[in-house]
């Protein structure tokens, strides 16, 4: 199946003679080598595919190149090298007019500090993208109200932005993005300015909305816990490069290098992992026959611990057809929660050689 969005060997270099800089980076130069000439390699050789309905998170520290990458995805920035394909169409091959049309109808952006128009009602703010598209007033108000309701703002349509809290204003931003019915949402640190509780609330709301809306979302964050909660897959960026792409479980259990390993040290594993990620897939078989409680592949880690505490033998993991697909011995739970990657999972890599952190 064709992915909704595809980045192919994207480079973005700011400064003098960018093409030359790309050549140097291709030959192995890194950011620091270029910096001396006043040139910044903001994004280096980034490739990934985002499927329809997927939340793809780009995670990295400040300056790692996340926003630059995102701006290339909707054609606001032209790549120095490489291509962006949206539904198979190369963005750089589009005319300005085609690109503007694509951006106004198919792609929406939500920023960290969402700038609402202060002299427009909440409804007119949410309807802004539709107004730009020339949608008649009655229809755009109906669609704006629907989007506001989805974002938990029913009843606030006529309010002014300054009557809303920061979290509510951010919801208006999200409603504006949803109102246009764009297929692709690009979210740049959209929740980062919010208080922790409100932020979590917004994450929940996005996940809830996503169950029915099935948008394709690229979500930028510097917060690994947020990345793990939201991302179907996560790309970790460092100094312009994507150093690992994978599911939250891949990244937690099989960090690609010491950099990623040091990043995940503080992640609450118990909130991310499920039975499928930690089970031993070569069970003996007798654990499932005792008539005891069992787990499913998607049983959360915390529940698994509670279950394990009630049983005297490993927890059996059964699939939807009640077939035994794995077992979880208690020591595996302890190993995963500790600083170890869990022996079986660490051995999956590199033909059994454990290459964990330094
Ligand atoms: N227009 C520009 N001109 C020159 N350099 C730029 C420009 N935009 C970004 N950069 C540089 O490119 C690098 C990546 O910046 P970018 O904004 O993409 O990082 P980021 O990961 O989004 O960071 P943050 O988390 O702080 O938002 C930085 O070194 C930045 O200074
Ligand atoms: Mg940024």
Task: Explain briefly what this protein structure is.
By secondary structure, the chain is of the alpha/beta class. 38% of the residues lie in helices and 20% in strands.
Present the secondary structure layout.
Blueprint: E1 5-14, H1 18-26, H2 31-35, E2 40-50, E3 55-60, H3 66-73, E4 81-86, E5 89-90, H4 96-105, E6 107-110, H5 122-126, H6 128-133, H7 137-150, H8 166-179, E7 184-188, H9 196-213, E8 216-221, H10 224-230, E9 233-238, E10 241-246, H11 248-253, H12 258-263, H13 275-278, H14 301-310, E11 315-318, E12 324-328, H15 330-337, H16 343-347
Parallel strand pairs: 3-8, 3-9, 6-7, 7-8
Antiparallel strand pairs: 1-2, 1-4, 4-5, 9-10, 11-12
Magnesium ion binds at residues 66-67, 188.
Tell me, what is the CATH class of the domain at 269-352? Alpha Beta
Helix fraction?
Answer: 25-40%
Strand content: 15-25%
Any idea what the radius of gyration is? Answer: 23 Å
Strand order of the largest sheet: 6-7-8-3-9-10
CATH architecture of the domain at 269-352: Alpha-Beta Complex
What sequence of helices (H) and strands (E) makes up the elements?
EHHEEHEEHEHHHHEHEHEEHHHHEEHH
Q: What small ligands are held by the chains?
A: adenosine-5'-triphosphate, magnesium ion
Which of globular, elongated, flat, extended, rod-shaped describes the shape? globular
**N-to-C span:** 40 Å
CATH topology of the domain at 269-352: CBS domain Like
Pfam family, one: ABC_tran
Family: Belongs to the ABC transporter superfamily.
Keywords: ATP-binding, CBS domain, Nucleotide-binding, Transport
Domain ABC transporter: 5-264
């Amino acid at each position: 199946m064709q992915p909704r969005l595809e980045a192919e060997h994207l480079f973005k270099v700011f400064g003098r003679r960018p093409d030359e800089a790309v050549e140097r980076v291709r030959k192995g130069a890194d950011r620091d080598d270029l910096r001396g000439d006043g040139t910044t390699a903001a994004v280096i050789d980034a490739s990934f595919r985002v499927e329809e309905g997927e939340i793809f998170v780009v995670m990295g520290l400040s300056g790692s190149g996340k926003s630059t990458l995102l701006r290339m995805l909707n054609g606001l920035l032209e790549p120095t090298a490489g291509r962006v394909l949206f539904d198979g169409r190369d963005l750089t091959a589009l005319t300005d007019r085609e690109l503007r049309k694509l951006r106004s109808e198919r792609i929406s952006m939500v920023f960290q500090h969402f700038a609402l128009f202060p002299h427009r009602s909440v409804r007119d703010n949410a309807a802004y993208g539709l107004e730009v598209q020339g949608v008649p007033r009655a229809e755009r108000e109906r669609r704006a109200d629907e989007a506001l309701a989805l974002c938990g703002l029913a009843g606030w349509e006529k309010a002014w932005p300054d009557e809303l809290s920061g979290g509510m204003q951010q919801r208006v931003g999200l409603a504006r993005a949803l109102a246009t019915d764009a297929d692709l949402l690009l979210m740049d640190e959209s929740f980062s300015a919010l208080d922790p509780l409100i932020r979590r609330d917004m994450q929940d709301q996005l996940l809830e909305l996503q169950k029915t809306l099935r948008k394709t979302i690229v979500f930028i964050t510097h917060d690994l816990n947020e990345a793990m909660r939201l991302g179907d897959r996560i790309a970790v960026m460092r100094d312009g490069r994507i150093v690992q792409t994978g599911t939250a479980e891949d990244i937690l259990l099989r960090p690609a290098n010491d950099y990623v390993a040091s990043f995940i040290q503080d992640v609450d594993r118990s909130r991310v992992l499920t039975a499928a990620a930690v089970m031993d897939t070569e069970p003996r078989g007798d654990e499932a026959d005792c008539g005891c409680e069992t787990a499913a592949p998607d049983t959360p880690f915390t529940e698994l611990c509670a279950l394990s505490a009630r049983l005297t033998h490993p927890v059996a993991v059964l699939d939807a057809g009640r077939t035994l697909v794995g077992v979880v011995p208690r020591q595996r739970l302890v190993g995963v929660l500790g600083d170890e990657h869990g022996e079986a999972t660490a051995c999956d890599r590199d033909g059994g050689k454990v290459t964990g952190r330094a």
